[in-house]
Prior knowledge:
By secondary structure, the protein is of the alpha/beta class. Helix content is 37%, strand content 22%. The chain has 16 helices and 16 strands. The chain has helices spanning 6-13, 31-35, 56-67, 69-76, 104-109, 126-135, 145-162, 179-185, 200-212, 216-225, 234-237, 240-254, 273-281, 343-359, 394-405, 428-441, and strands at 47-52, 80-86, 100-101, 113-118, 139-142, 166-167, 191-197, 284-295, 298-309, 321-328, 332-339, 383-391, 409-411, 418-422, 426-427, 449-455. The strands form two sheets. Strands 7, 8, 9, 10, 11, 12, 13, 14, 15 and 16 form a ten-stranded mixed β-sheet that branches. Helix 15 packs antiparallel against helix 16 (428-441). The longest helix has 18 residues, at 145-162. It starts with 5 loop residues before the first helix and ends with a strand. Bound molecules: L-homoserine. L-homoserine binds at residues 174, 199-201, 236, 241, 340-341.
Amino acid sequence: MRLDSPALLDGLWASRTEAGFSDGREVPYTSSQITGIHEISQEDEMIKVAIMGYGTIGSGVYEVLETNREVLAASVGQELSVKYILDLRDFPGTSVEKKIVHDFSVICQDKEVKIVVETMGGLDPAYPFVKACLEAGKHVATSNKALVAAHGTELLAIARKKKVNFMFEASVGGGIPIIRPLYRCLMGEKIEEITGILNGTTNFILTKMDKEGASFEWALKEAQALGYAERNPEADVEGHDTCRKIAILTAMATGREVNYEEIPTEGITKITDVDFRYADALGMSVKLVGQSRVENGKTYAWVAPLMIGKDHPLYAVSDVYNGIVVKGNMIGTTMYYGSGAGKLPTASAVVADMVEEAKHINSNIPIGWSGEKLSIASGQDLIFRYFVRVSGSCEDRKDLVEAAFGKSRFVQLEGMDEFAFLTGEMKEARFTESMEILKEELTAENERVLQVIRGNR
Ligand code: HSE
């Protein structure tokens, strides 16, 4: 039968019961034949799983497992059944009350538990717990980027040795499939560049500043009120979260260990509403971006606010959404977009890892990176355009600016005793030198550099 035959198309679209169509016709293909999913036999045992940390993501994992129970069972061939939930709290009167344990060893020592979800966050006790689970021959799925960035190399090695899997799709981009595309769909590619808006909180703040003229402080408060930003927002607004995520993606793409501490990282705390007024005049916006790029055998990586134009694929990625652009040497540019955070999207990515682990319950899928260290090349070789704001008169200083930086685009906002310019492309090292020259020449009392933001090439 041809794939486009009327019977099959009918079969896909018409309403049907378990045995056949509601009008009595036979089902031409079962859904399992079409999608390759398994038939579930009554005798099949359940796969017992445990969730460590019943906060937003952990409870989301439970909800996804419950809501999509049948879909997941059909996909795996066995049901995924939550045996334990590790948390400090008791959750009395809820459906999970009887599954709650407070002692990690109950999970670790129970041979029936094959897959453990880690959604506690942080390193302690997540790291020793995950390590012990892998050592005990259990698969682990985690959403914890701090854990993956700091201890991924060791945990991946233990998983290989024990023939289990350590998976972390949810650690980057929340619900956006990005880890799996890197090790599956793009495995025939040399990845040349990864550029991403990888933090929903900061993207929400910058969008508020851009679209509503909000100040950073007001937008941060709004993000906190809506539950996006933590009470201590440092990890997000200082770029640390984005740094760990681009480190993980770079390690995935190169197969080598990346020390996230080597990645130059700037956050968004110095970006102001005035910067957005200039960006608007230039037809641009400011996004917090993490990038890694392989060029002439060197790997560069950085995290910083980036002024991007309307033609950039990340320009339209707004609010809490994330977007990731991956360039391969054969495929060219691909882009991944969606909810980069949030309960159910992130939980969905964790559950996808659980399904993959359940399907490879007796084997390790060779993913991730080795212990070979990747050195991050000096940021001074990176090429950007640069947006610079200077107080004082544009007319007086135009020649000086172009003598130092070369041909630039100048912008002035009405009623402001300052101006801005956008340079052409240059190496960071050359920009630093030119800035020294400019600062030396800005001698009048009212003259000083107010802002510098990198711009995309
Ligand atoms: N704080 C992170 C964000 C959560 O805002 O993107 C998801 O990693």
